[in-house]
């Protein structure tokens, strides 16, 4: 609103300053409301941070509570040519194997030629008897190579220079290689249609004079208990033997004359890391609460002490969060304290993890410790879900309620804006009228003064 330019017009009073002072007093209730909005907004932000930490704890706890959460195993071998990998379902143990052969794909070359036979039809028959008939755009070897490589026959073709024929024409061989290893991926290549193959009139281009087999298709093989009555040969189309032992895959890269020992043992270090991560996640939530609940003391400009509480200081909901999480982690399991598994509550209200103690207990009784950790993690998951659930969680409800308060306060602040604007306009009108009246009175005073002066002059 435009000012009326009232300052000292008739009265000499600083009316603008007077109005500003009065408005400052009128604004106090709105300022208090704004402060409440700021405080509540800070609380919501802090609660959202806490909710995120508790939700993360819930997710981790639920994972750790699964029955096989601590089933980690290491697999090793006594040879650099044998690599063992333990996955889900592995169990401890060892076995000796002798690597008899490595898997390989078939490869062969045709006799030298200047062009494919006419018509340019190729039929590739797999080891399973399935025939794939391929027709090239022409009988040029480039078109034949392109046609084979673009087919689904599982064979790749490469044109390789091979000198010249008696007439001086440049010749080439086609190298034909299987895309997959293993005996079941062997193939035969014919010049001719599938019908010609069936009739026995097609030419096997890898069996012609001048052609050669570079490599036969072959499975990898390992022998268990070699030299015993229980000797057993296991084959694989690749160099990897999946689940050679339960949950253990073995990859071979060379044959061996002597037995190679594949051993599988528990990976206690990774199991301990899993439990440690759970305790760390819990402590992150507890530390977050503690930091924002602490009371700090400082001094103002005069040196007087100022005691300030954190955003969570005195908040019963947040105290309940700490209480429930600590109870879930520290209560006994079947009469035994979690400290027996390396999980202990401290004097400062946090949890600590003793890796050495956990590892010793886990090595002694894996099943018992797994059950205890499952129980503790399950309790934490339930508690955290009750606190951070997106719909009915305690923290979520607190956030929703505080946000509603913020909305209501913000509405009140907006209404105060209108109220203060009206009040200021009224003050401006009041002082404007006051100046008008003062101006009239000044005029009357001037006239009266002039009349008195005139009478006095006549008398003299």
UniProtKB/TrEMBL annotation:
Keywords: Bacterial flagellum, Cell projection, Cilium, Coiled coil, Flagellum, Secreted. It comes from the Bacteria. One of its GO terms (cellular component) is extracellular region. Its main location: secreted. Residues 11-106 form the Flagellar hook-associated protein 2 N-terminal domain. InterPro entries: FliD, FliD_C, FliD_N. This is Flagellar hook-associated protein 2. It comes from Conyzicola lurida. The lineage of its organism: Bacteria, Bacillati, Actinomycetota, Actinomycetes, Micrococcales.
